[in-house]
Design brief:
about 90 residues, alpha+beta, three-stranded antiparallel beta sheet, globular
């Protein structure tokens, strides 16, 4: 049996491209994924336990990104979602 690999649609994509993929997924499936606040793990994440935190405005198309602590990702995304904090406050 030969090993198989599934495609990784987000691999090597920019935050804007990831946002567009997520928006298309929501449109195509009716999913309730939060497409305005999300995290991206990349090669650096393995080295320093950080992620890209992304805030993508559906209305203006503006994308804001900061590097944040991996262990705080859930709380960071929750605070962004409810509007308690600005994305710039999470930068490490």
């Amino acid at each position: 049996m030969s090993p198989t690999s599934s495609p990784a649609p987000f691999q090597d994509k920019t935050p804007k491209e990831c946002s567009e993929i997520l928006q298309a997924l929501v449109k195509d499936t009716g999913s309730e994924i939060n497409v305005e606040n999300f995290a991206i793990l990349d090669e650096r994440s393995k080295e320093d336990d950080t992620v890209w935190l992304v805030q993508a405005s559906k209305r203006s198309g503006e994308i804001k990104i900061v590097r944040g602590a991996l262990k705080q990702t859930d709380m960071s995304l929750e605070n962004l979602w409810v509007g308690n904090m600005n994305i710039e406050e999470f930068e490490v």
